[in-house]
Each structure stands twice: as C-alpha cells, then as structure tokens.
C-alpha cells in the first residue's frame, strides 16, 4: 500500500489565505497532434491518425470552438496541450490542490472500429502518464476506455489501475446501449477490483455509431444540441439504478461529469414516485432509487445552471449537495467556470464540501485543511484508503468570498459577433472549440 505522502507545490500568492483546499474534477489535457500517440500504438493504426478527426467524424456544425484561444500555449498549439502552461494558467492561478485529468478523446467510444478505438484510448493513457503526471504532483489521472468492447476495456483498467495517481476510469456518457445492461459489467468489475471511480463524461452524443443526440432525432443547431445534452446523463443514471448495478457492485461509485445539476432532483423524485407503483418490475432494488443516487453517485458543478442564487441554493439542497456535488472548471473549454464564479454562489456550509471534501472522500484523498489556526486534517468516509491518502497542502490561495476579480475573470464570452456576456465572474476567455 502507498505510504502517506505530503506534497507541497509552490503557489502564486493572492490577496488572502485560502480557507480550504480546491480539487478540480474536470481538467482536459489534450495532444499537440495525433502524432503524439504513435510511440504508444501499433504501426498498423498510424495511417488513421493522419485522417481528419482521427477519432471520429463530427456530425454537427459548432460555430463556437471547443477551447479558449487564450488557453493556448502559443505557436499554434491546441489549448490544454502543454502541461507547463496549464500549471501556470490554471493550477497556480487558482491554487488548485489537485486536478483530475479527464482528457480530450472521449469520442473514441463513437468509432465504428472497436480495436482502433481501444488502441487510441490505451495510447492516450500512456501519453498522459508519461507527459503530464511527471510535470506536477497535483495532476491525477483517469483511465480512458472505449465502451464498444467492455472486455478489452477491463484489461486496460487492470493494466493501469494500480498506478498510485490514477483515481478513476472515464468513458463517454454516450453509448449504443444503456450502461446499466450487463454487457458493461466487466468495466464495473475491473473498476471495483482496482478501487477506482467510474466517471461518465459528456462527449460523442449523436456522433459515429452512437444514437441521435435527442430522443426525437438530430437537432438543427449546436445551441439546440447544447441545451439537451443532459438527457444522456439522465438516461445512463436511470439505467444504472434501475438495472441494479449498485446492488451487484455495492462499492461502486460513479461520477457524472459535465452534465449539469438541475435535472438531478427531478429525476430522483420521478424515480421514487414510479418505484412505489412499479417496484415489482425491479425486485432486486432494496432501496428507493434516490437513495442509491445519493450513496453512489456524484455530480460536477460545470456547467452549473444560473438561476437566481436563492433558487440555485434551493436546488442544490434538494440533491444533497453536501454529499453529491464536486467542483469542476472544465478547463480549457470555452464555457469553463472559475472557482470564484462557482464557489462564491454558495454559503460556507456548502462551499467547503463542494470545493474539496466531497471529491476527497470519493477519490480517497487526504486533505490538509487550510483554515486559519487549524493545521489539522480532514478525511471523512471509507473512501480515504491507505493506497490513496495523499495530503493536499498549499500555502496561499484565492479568496473565495472576495468580489475582486482579475481582468481575465471579467473577459467577455466572444464566440460570435452577437454574443457579449459581460459583468460575470465566469473565467471564460475568447472562445475556442464548442463540445
């Protein structure tokens, strides 16, 4: 088992001390080019890497690019492709204690060739471990798997699952079949065997071999598409609970990333209501559906809905925010959220849980609290295993209760001539490519 280690990293000074650690649960690293994968892939696949969109064809026009131009390290390189630049631009800027790398090739699960998809995923995993993790102790990694072949995916999980800085398995939320079905059990078995979270992240909806983006077919515009992306997270959560996955794998935890939050209370209420009248169809469920969700599922803040703040707080309490919600920036995407934008919206009793404690418990991280006059530690819950107890320590950080923002925080969202969202604390630079 991994010995307890305390990792300290130099941080950029800000105007006041950080009251608690900050864990970013969705940080996208990418390639400088697909040629970066060649050292990790059989030569037979190399010609496909030179094709446009080497992972899959894109089926809908997206006028707003996915990543922010100001997050590019320069020299024409993609945003999120240089770990040193990302350290300065995000980790140091916001004093992020840990950032979980979620990658940029989730759409491999939409490819028609399962062997090629698995080879790309495996190569990207090795590239991440070799290129990103050595640059800063704050990076934590995900194992990308292609969902077309769950048995091959399970072998990939076993190959890398014992790495001390790998904390989860990640795959696209889009799939040809619901994730509650038994063909996906090898993925869950491998995740549980390696003490890893399973993360379902938005990506690949309506692309390649996947079903249409919406339940009624293909939308006309990316705006229309973007509004209903959460239906994929809803559908997968509904399937996983109803099919009894958490009864079969009682220690399994699933993180739903980049799917929003407001739909969660609605789905819990609807499932609980129908369970009362239809539970005979699911005799394997021993609890209300909402109880499985609260116990086994976590949800990230980005892209957080933006109603009046009082309504936002009410919605978060309905979904047991103190246990189920984790902070995420979605860096370097065009609609990413800065810590000041999200956490300033929350009262203090929620803020600490969302900023670090919920994620620390889920991923088994040992958090050194940075409250003034308190040098103690806080690691609640059974998730804080000996294998993964890593101290998250920092010096100074952002003031999450301050209204002072940097010029970058005040940047306009300028994805097109008719978009001008000003006066927001959201850290969005000039638009890059829309997911």
Automatic annotation (TrEMBL):
GO MF term list: carboxy-lyase activity; hydrolase activity
Annotated source species: Paenibacillus xerothermodurans
GO BP, sorted A to Z: secondary metabolic process
A matching Pfam family: Amidohydro_2
Top-rank taxon: Bacteria
UniProt name for this protein: Amidohydrolase
Keywords, alphabetical: Lyase
Amidohydrolase-related domain boundaries: 23-365
GO-annotated cellular components: cytoplasm
Presence of keyword DNA damage: no
Chain intervals with Basic and acidic residues compositional bias: 418-435
Region entry Disordered, spans: 409-435
Organism ancestry: Bacteria, Bacillati, Bacillota, Bacilli, Bacillales
InterPro entries: ACMSD (IPR032465), Amidohydro-rel (IPR006680), Metal_Hydrolase (IPR032466)
């Amino acid at each position: 088992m991994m010995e307890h280690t305390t990792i300290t990293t130099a941080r950029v000074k800000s105007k006041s001390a950080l009251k608690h650690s900050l864990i970013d649960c969705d940080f996208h690293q990418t390639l400088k080019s697909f040629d970066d994968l060649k050292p990790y892939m059989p030569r037979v696949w190399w010609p496909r890497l030179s094709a446009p969109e080497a992972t899959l064809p894109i089926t809908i026009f997206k006028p707003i690019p996915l990543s922010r131009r100001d997050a590019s390290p320069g020299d024409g390189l993609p945003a999120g492709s240089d770990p040193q630049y990302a350290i300065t631009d995000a980790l140091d800027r916001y004093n992020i204690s840990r950032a979980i790398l979620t990658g940029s090739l989730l759409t491999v699960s939409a490819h028609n060739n399962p062997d090629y998809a698995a080879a790309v995923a495996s190569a990207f995993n090795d590239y991440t471990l070799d290129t990103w993790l050595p640059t800063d102790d704050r990076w934590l990694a995900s194992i990308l798997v292609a969902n077309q072949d769950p048995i091959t995916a399970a072998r990939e999980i076993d190959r890398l699952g014992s790495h001390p800085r790998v904390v989860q398995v990640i795959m696209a939320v889009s799939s040809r079949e619901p994730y509650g079905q038994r063909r996906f059990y090898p993925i869950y078995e491998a995740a549980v065997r390696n003490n890893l979270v399973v993360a379902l992240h938005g990506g690949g909806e309506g692309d390649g071999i996947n079903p249409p983006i919406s339940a009624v077919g293909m939308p006309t515009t990316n705006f229309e598409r973007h509004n209903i992306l959460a239906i994929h997270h809803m559908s997968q959560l509904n399937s996983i609970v109803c099919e009894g996955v958490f009864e079969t794998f009682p220690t399994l935890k699933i993180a739903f990333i980049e799917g929003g939050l407001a739909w969660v209370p609605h789905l819990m209420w609807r499932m609980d209501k129908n369970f009362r009248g239809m539970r005979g169809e699911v005799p394997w469920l021993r609890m209300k559906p909402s109880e499985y969700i609260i116990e086994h599922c976590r949800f990230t803040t980005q892209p957080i809905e933006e109603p009046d703040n009082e309504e936002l707080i009410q919605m978060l309490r309905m979904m047991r925010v103190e246990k189920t919600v984790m902070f995420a920036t979605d860096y370097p995407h065009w609609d990413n959220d800065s810590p000041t934008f999200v956490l300033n919206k929350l009262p203090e009793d929620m803020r600490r849980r969302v900023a670090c404690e919920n994620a620390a418990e889920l991923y088994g991280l040992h958090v050194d609290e940075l409250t003034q006059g308190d040098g103690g530690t806080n690691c609640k819950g059974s998730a804080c295993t000996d294998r993964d107890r890593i101290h998250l320590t920092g010096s100074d950080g952002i003031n999450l209760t301050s209204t002072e923002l940097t010029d970058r925080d005040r940047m306009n969202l300028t994805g097109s001539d008719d978009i001008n969202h000003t006066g927001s604390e959201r850290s969005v630079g000039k638009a890059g490519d829309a997911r």
